């Protein structure tokens, strides 16, 4: 298990030989910084140490720090799309920020664990450091990692689970690209956008520049065709002049006897043929000569180096195999290979016997194949290979007989066998794993059953049978056990012969195969699956079984994560491996401890090359065991942290690709243009690999926001930064037109297609690659082993002139930020347009593909229309092939005889239509398949400072807006907008999308947020914006019309109703909150407000002169509210009747409110009205509920009592301090009028509250409280009301969401233990995802789904009577959270745990606000948070109470 530590540790940082370039940080580190507490663990310096020093230094600089933010899921892991993240090269230090919503499970005592050297030091894959997550739940949890060096890293979060156990979250991986640097080149184009003549453009300078990965132009060169190192200069010069900046060398190590570069005989020596024939230098001398050559390529020709590393196999004649045969897979270390070796031996022997047996040695027909395969079957039948699969019946019977005779029979420990049939017993032996070595295949009859076990089983089955009978019975069972084993052998044999037939036909008969010569022992019928290490003095010490080692190869559709040479794979026995006879597969085991010498040797190999080359191409990567690749590449990166790594993966799965890429740290995956079978598929893979962002992308600057960035280590200055979200990554592509091991264009498509495909690939926005044979138009694929001619060097060969232009331009576009592109395919044409988004400069290539041979026709493509864009012709060419025959030259490799024909300039044709001006590019009449044209483009009428112009005076425009103005600018739903504009303006309707939910800017932000997050330029809104300016016109005209308008708020005050019992107390609570929060808040008490009605309660119309003619101060209004209640309120609503309320019965218009001076509580209401916020009145005649309130809540509602107590406490304090002009109220108590002070009234409620509201959890305590056990439904709660009317006493005991309101405003009323118990029950039974259930689901009246249009005869739900009988309202949730926080923080519980729990409760609301187009919490939801179509989609009080909770947390943190 990896060690977890709290610090980094030093390591030696290699300097890479004579050039000393790889290990140097390229950022200027300011000096004289303050000492850091972690300095002691940071010596010697590593690149990561240097980055930390930079962040901790006092030097700030002028450029903002880039922060890449990776949002994690609730379990601390990234979502599937973000499981792999690619980060750019750290040319300057930047930050990777891992962020997590507060309250997520992973934030509970969370700890980040990572092998990223967070505290400096060197990277070690199995050494993990940890960082405790911040516990401030008032904001997202953020962990900043300072990035200053390339590498591949894993991370996860560990946290406390539900029961306190530590939980490991899902792993995530981030790879940091290497910083590649090489000599800068001069532009290939003149300022007038013409091509510089050879020797003028694309020249190497003395300056060094960073090359983005997308600017790599790679060419594959085979060293054996270049001669000795001292003969390489012409090839380097030609490569550089063709615009390439990196050479991919096939393996350069000493080749084996096959002479294939991929069959390496000595991993630590460079190939002897790289040096003159009279070379006598040592291995180290050869390494030095190679270093000098690579330095020359870099310094003189601007060429970086990429070399193949071969980790999976070694040459079949590798000398060290004689000393270390354990490095291969043999029957000794992999016994299951024994029958596969015997089969291979038999095929070789059979091959040597053909002539003697009158069988053909040369295959000329299918009949020959059939004859040889039939004869091979007969030959193999004599080998009895089935014996490797089955149990030996005779041996088994003998063994059990001896065991039974011995009398020493153990007890049977398996299932009862009595009454079981022979078949059942046989199955039990397999299922109970009583058969040893089943499927091991290690020797004939290796599978067996221990005699004692067999004897015990038979004796337990037939205790009274004789020994002979038991032996025979056992023999029958063994026969049955063997039946499926025989079938397995037969199936394996058939698969093997199917593969044998297929391979014979390909290698010896089919036209596209190698058509091997005569069959013999030396050239067997089939490739040898095993290399036989020659026996001699060195090998005499080894077990003979170790000297036959498996050759490597590949398998169609195999699992790349499975080792096909290891047990239980039967790939060698079933002849499934397409084998390479010259390559022995290497056996690394599970780690260095399994094969120390091999691991040491191969580590020396990769570190040697890492110190010399800029990059590796991993050969046969998909078959490289992951743990091997990880360990060896880690060792290589110690030597060269900026090592570029590419590979081909044939896994068949993008998910598996990402597994390899993320673990190994593969920088680029090799993709190939010639895998496309037609122009449509070609355009698809061009878009897939060569377009990272479409033109007009909105996910870059639009998603980046400025922020102040604290130092990631906690030491150093706060810096200005730019935060960009990460959405996950796809593996980077290095896109080859053709790779070195695939057939030529002439073979696969047409020779002319080399020009068109080469241009398309070179124009792609990714790393690109080619092979010299492609550029030079080689007519066929050359054999790496047998071909010994040299490359030809010619200025006019093939398409080299075109590659000079396009390769240079490719790198320039990457350096200059041409990051957006568009691919258009039409018939046989493909057009690619690349654009630099800030200046809108671009380049466009028009290509006529040539997938078919023979045609010279122009084909068809519509004029290429460029809207508001001008195009300038740069270059055009077609390819004229004079002969398709191979140019026979005994010494040089030459391409097809051809001429590159330049095309005359093509001028754009100007035009205009309703959408504005455009220019068209019309393909000329003479434009045969394979032709290309290159243009520069420029968007017209684009101000260079448009970004700055758009930001001008934004602050000024918004600085004078008040909250009402902001509501107009940002929000307003359609109904509000129409009310305010007399129906002139409504919500904007986007074609294909529908109406926006808001008329203000927030209405646009919801679809735009989606567009920006996913860069979804195909979204209907994007299409609408492209089609015209209507959207912008609407925004401008709407805001212009709103200037000076005020919403019409007068109507509700014209004919107000005074039937609400709770509204005055909410108002007083709001005034109290204002005085406590606002600066000089108490001054509001002296403010004068106009009265709608006179003080004598006379009703006057709103337009009567008396209306609003009287004034009172706020303090006087407060006192009047209290006094009116103290005196008692009793009146019939003005204009009572259907005109006022068509649903209410006559009795409902009577309003009665009084104070019970025994308890101090305010009682009111009746069975006929509903005077609290739960105010649903029955409307259904059919259901008999018309005029019947759904929730009368008569008596003393708990929240009113709490609000009253809060007001009295506040006023008592103010009065005592002389800050309120009144002391109390006059009340008539027991017939006497007296002054009751605010404090006396408050004390009266305090003394009576628990007694009258609490329902004890233990019935034994009922006597201590005012409880009627007969109507109790749930215990340990607080009543919803106290003193409901006759016949409705049960309603007091309904468990509802109102009591936390009283707890939040007047917590002193509650016994803390009782309060926590009730809150815990509410947390379980009332809290929903977005709100609180208005009634306990265990209540018989609970109906959780509200439908106001319900027209049934069900009285519980008809016309939505259940509005407050279960549906989950948003606003009470904030009060619940506030109450829970208050009582838990005083209980001694961990504040961190409490806050985590509460913020976890908030997560659904956070996500809802982020994702819902209304950007707010709805009025209510149906049960369990489900959508309610009759709910207001967002309500201010649903959102505001959550803000109140957050404010409480803020205050708590501020005073902590």
Task: Give the helix proportion (percent range).
Answer: 25-40%
Structural class, from helix and strand content? alpha+beta
Shape: globular
Strand runs, count: 55
Q: What does this 3D model show about the protein?
A:
30% of the residues lie in helices and 19% in strands. By secondary structure, it is an alpha+beta fold. It has an eight-stranded parallel beta barrel, surrounded by four helices. Strands 1, 3, 5, 6, 8, 9 and 10 form a seven-stranded mixed beta sheet that branches. A hairpin with a 5-residue loop joins β8 and β9. α8 (451-461) packs across α9 and α15 packs parallel to α17. The chain is globular. The relative contact order is 0.06.
Strand and helix map with partners:
Layout: E1 3-5, H1 47-56, E2 65-71, E3 84-87, E4 94-100, E5 111-114, E6 127-132, E7 141-147, E8 151-160, E9 166-168, E10 172-176, E11 181-185, E12 204-210, E13 217-221, H2 233-241, E14 246-249, E15 253-255, E16 264-270, H3 283-301, E17 304-309, E18 313-315, H4 338-352, H5 366-381, H6 393-406, H7 422-431, H8 451-461, H9 467-508, E19 530-532, E20 548-554, E21 578-585, H10 596-610, E22 615-618, H11 626-639, E23 644-647, H12 654-664, E24 668-672, H13 679-690, E25 705-709, E26 719-726, E27 733-736, H14 745-748, H15 753-762, E28 767-771, H16 772-775, E29 790-791, H17 800-815, E30 820-826, E31 829-836, E32 841-848, E33 864-867, E34 869-881, E35 892-893, E36 898-902, E37 909-913, E38 916-921, E39 932-939, H18 946-951, H19 954-959, H20 963-970, H21 974-980, E40 989-990, E41 994-995, H22 1001-1014, H23 1020-1027, H24 1030-1042, H25 1051-1054, H26 1063-1077, E42 1088-1091, E43 1110-1113, H27 1114-1127, E44 1129-1132, E45 1150-1156, E46 1161-1164, E47 1196-1197, H28 1198-1216, E48 1224-1229, E49 1232-1237, H29 1238-1253, E50 1254-1255, E51 1277-1278, ...
Helix pairs in contact: 5-9, 6-8, 6-9, 7-9, 8-9, 10-11, 15-17, 26-28, 28-29, 28-30, 30-32, 31-32, 32-33, 32-34
């Amino acid at each position: 298990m990896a060690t977890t530590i709290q610090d980094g540790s030093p390591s030696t940082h290699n300097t890479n030989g004579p050039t000393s370039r790889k290990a140097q940080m390229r950022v200027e580190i300011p000096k004289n910084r303050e000492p850091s507490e972690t300095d002691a663990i940071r010596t010697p310096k590593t690149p990561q140490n240097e980055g930390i020093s930079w962040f901790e230094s006092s030097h700030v600089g002028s450029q903002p720090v880039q922060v890449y933010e990776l949002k994690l899921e609730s379990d601390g892991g990234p979502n599937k799309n973000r499981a792999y993240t690619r980060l750019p090269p750290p040319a300057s230090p930047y930050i990777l920020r891992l962020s997590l919503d507060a309250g997520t499970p992973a934030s509970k005592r969370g700890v980040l664990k990572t092998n990223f050297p967070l505290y400096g030091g060197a990277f070690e894959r199995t050494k993990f450091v940890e960082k405790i997550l911040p516990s401030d739940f008032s904001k997202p949890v953020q962990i900043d990692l300072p990035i200053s060096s390339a590498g591949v890293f894993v991370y996860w979060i560990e946290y406390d689970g539900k029961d306190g156990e530590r939980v490991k979250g899902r792993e995530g991986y981030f790879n940091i690209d290497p910083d590649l640097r090489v000599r800068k080149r001069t532009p290939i184009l003149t300022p007038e956008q013409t091509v510089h003549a050879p020797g003028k453009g694309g020249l190497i300078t003395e300056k060094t520049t960073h090359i983005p990965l997308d600017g790599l132009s790679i060419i594959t060169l085979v060293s054996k065709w270049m001669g000795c190192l001292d003969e390489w200069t012409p090839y380097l010069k030609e490569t550089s002049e063709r615009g390439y900046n990196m050479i991919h060398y096939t393996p350069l190590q000493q080749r084996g006897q096959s002479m294939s570069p991929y069959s390496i005989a000595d991993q630590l020596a460079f190939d002897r043929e790289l040096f003159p024939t009279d070379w006598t230098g040592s291995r180290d001398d050869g390494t030095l000569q190679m270093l000098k050559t690579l330095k020359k390529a870099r310094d003189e020709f601007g060429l970086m180096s990429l070399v193949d590393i071969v980790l999976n196999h070694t040459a079949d004649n590798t000398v060290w195999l004689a000393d270390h045969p354990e490095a291969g897979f043999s029957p000794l270390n992999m016994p299951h290979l024994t029958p596969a070796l015997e089969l291979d031996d038999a095929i070789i022997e059979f091959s040597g016997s053909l002539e003697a047996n009158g069988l053909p040695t040369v295959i000329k027909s299918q009949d020959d194949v059939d004859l040889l395969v039939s004869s091979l079957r007969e030959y193999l039948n004599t080998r009895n290979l089935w014996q490797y699969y089955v149990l030996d019946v005779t041996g088994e019977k003998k063994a059990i007989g001896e065991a039974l005779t011995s009398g020493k029979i153990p007890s049977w420990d398996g299932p009862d066998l009595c009454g079981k049939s022979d078949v059942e017993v046989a199955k039990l032996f397999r299922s109970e794993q009583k058969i040893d070595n089943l499927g091991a295949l290690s020797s004939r009859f290796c599978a067996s059953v221990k005699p004692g076990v067999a004897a015990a089983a038979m004796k337990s089955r037939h205790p009274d049978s004789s020994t002979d009978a038991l032996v025979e019975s056992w023999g029958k069972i063994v026969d049955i056990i063997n039946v499926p084993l025989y079938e397995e052998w037969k199936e394996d044999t058939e698969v093997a012969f199917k593969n044998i037939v297929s391979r014979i036909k390909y290698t010896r008969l089919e036209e596209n195969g190698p058509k091997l010569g005569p069959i013999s022992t030396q050239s067997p019928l089939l490739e040898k699956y095993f290399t036989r290490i020659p026996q001699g003095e060195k090998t005499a010490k080894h077990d003979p079984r170790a000297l036959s080692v498996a050759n490597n190869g590949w398998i169609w559709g195999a699992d790349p994560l499975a080792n096909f040479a290891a047990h239980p794979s039967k790939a060698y026995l079933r002849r499934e491996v397409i084998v390479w006879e010259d390559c022995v597969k290497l056996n690394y085991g599970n780690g260095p401890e399994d094969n120390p010498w091999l691991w040491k040797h191969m580590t020396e190999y990769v570190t040697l090359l890492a110190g010399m080359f800029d990059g590796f191409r991993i050969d046969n990567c998909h078959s490289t065991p992951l743990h091997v690749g990880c360990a060896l590449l880690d060792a290589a990166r110690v030597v060269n942290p900026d090592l570029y790594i590419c590979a081909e993966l044939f896994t068949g799965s993008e998910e598996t690709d990402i597994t390899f890429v993320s673990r190994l740290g593969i920088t680029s995956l090799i993709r190939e243009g010639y895998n496309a079978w037609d122009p449509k598929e070609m355009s698809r893979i061009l878009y897939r690999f060569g377009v990272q962002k479409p033109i007009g992308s909105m996910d870059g600057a639009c998603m980046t926001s400025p922020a102040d960035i604290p130092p990631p280590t906690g030491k150093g200055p706060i810096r200005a930064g730019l935060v960009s979200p990460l959405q996950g990554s796809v593996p980077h592509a290095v896109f080859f037109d053709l790779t070195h091991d695939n057939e030529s264009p002439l073979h696969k498509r047409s020779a002319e297609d080399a020009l068109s495909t080469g241009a398309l690939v070179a124009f792609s926005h990714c790393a690109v690659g080619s092979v010299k044979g492609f550029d030079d138009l080689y007519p066929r694929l050359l054999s790496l082993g047998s071909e010994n001619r040299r490359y030809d060097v010619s200025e006019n060969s093939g398409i080299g002139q075109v590659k000079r232009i396009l390769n240079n331009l490719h790198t320039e576009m990457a350096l200059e930020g041409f990051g957006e592109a568009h691919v258009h395919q039409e018939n046989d044409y493909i057009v690619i347009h690349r654009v630099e988004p800030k200046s809108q400069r671009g380049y466009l290539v028009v290509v006529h593909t040539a997938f078919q041979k023979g045609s010279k026709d122009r084909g068809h493509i519509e004029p290429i229309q460029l809207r508001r864009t001008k195009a300038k012709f740069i270059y055009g060419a077609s390819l004229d092939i004079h002969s398709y025959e191979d140019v026979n030259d005994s010494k040089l490799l030459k391409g097809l005889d051809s001429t590159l024909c330049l095309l005359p300039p093509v001028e754009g044709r100007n035009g205009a239509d309703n959408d504005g001006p455009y220019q068209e590019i019309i393909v000329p009449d003479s434009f045969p398949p394979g032709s290309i044209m290159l243009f520069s483009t420029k968007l017209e009428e684009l101000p260079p400072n448009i970004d700055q112009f758009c930001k001008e005076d934004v602050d000024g425009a918004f600085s004078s807006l008040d909250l009402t103005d902001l509501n107009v600018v940002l929000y307003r739903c359609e109904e509000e907008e129409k009310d305010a504009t007399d129906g002139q303006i409504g919500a904007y309707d986007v074609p294909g999308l529908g109406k926006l939910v808001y008329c203000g800017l927030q209405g646009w932000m919801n679809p735009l947020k989606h567009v920006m997050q996913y860069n979804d330029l195909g979204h209907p809104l994007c299409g609408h914006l492209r089609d015209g300016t209507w959207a912008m016109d609407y925004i401008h005209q709407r805001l212009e019309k709103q200037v000076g308008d005020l919403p019409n708020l007068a109507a509700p005050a014209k004919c107000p109703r005074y039937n609400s019992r709770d509204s005055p107390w909410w108002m007083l609570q709001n005034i109290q909150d204002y005085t406590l929060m606002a600066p000089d808040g108490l001054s509001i008490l002296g403010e004068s407000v106009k009265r709608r009605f006179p003080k004598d309660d006379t009703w006057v119309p709103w337009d009567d002169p008396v209306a609003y003619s009287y004034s009172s101060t706020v303090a006087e209004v407060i006192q009047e509210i209290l006094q009116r209640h103290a005196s008692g309120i009793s009146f019939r609503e003005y204009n009572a009747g259907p005109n006022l309320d068509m649903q209410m019965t006559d009795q409902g218009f009577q309003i009665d409110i009084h104070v019970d001076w025994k308890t101090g509580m305010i009682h009111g209401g009746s069975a006929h009205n509903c005077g609290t916020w739960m105010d649903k009145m029955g409307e259904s005649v059919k259901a008999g509920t018309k005029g019947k309130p759904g929730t009368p809540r008569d008596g003393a509602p708990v929240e009113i009592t709490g609000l009253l107590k809060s007001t009295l406490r506040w006023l008592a304090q103010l009065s005592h301090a002389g800050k309120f002009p009144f002391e109390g109220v006059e009340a008539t108590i027991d017939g006497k009028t007296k002054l009751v002070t605010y404090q006396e009234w408050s004390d009266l409620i305090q003394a009576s509250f628990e007694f009258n509201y609490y329902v004890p959890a233990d019935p034994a305590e009922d006597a201590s409280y005012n409880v009627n056990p007969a109507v109790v439904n749930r215990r340990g709660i607080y009543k919803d009301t106290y003193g409901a009317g006759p016949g409705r006493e049960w309603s007091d005991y309904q468990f509802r969401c109102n009591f936390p309101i009283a707890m939040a405003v007047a917590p002193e009323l509650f016994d803390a233990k009782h309060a926590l118990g009730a809150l815990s029950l509410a947390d379980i039974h009332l809290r929903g995802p977005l709100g609180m259930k208005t009634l306990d689901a265990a209540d018989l009246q609970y109906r959780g789904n509200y439908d106001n249009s319900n027209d049934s005869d069900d009285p519980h739900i008809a016309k939505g009577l259940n509005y407050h009988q279960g549906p989950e309202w948003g606003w009470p949730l904030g009060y619940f959270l506030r109450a829970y926080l208050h009582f838990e923080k005083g209980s001694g519980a961990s504040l961190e745990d409490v806050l985590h729990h509460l913020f976890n409760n908030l997560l659904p609301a956070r996500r809802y606000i982020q994702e819902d187009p209304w950007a707010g919490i709805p009025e209510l939801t149906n049960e369990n948070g489900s959508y309610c179509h009759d709910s207001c989609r967002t309500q201010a009080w649903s959102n505001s109470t959550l803000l109140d909770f957050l404010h409480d947390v803020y205050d708590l943190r501020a005073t902590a």
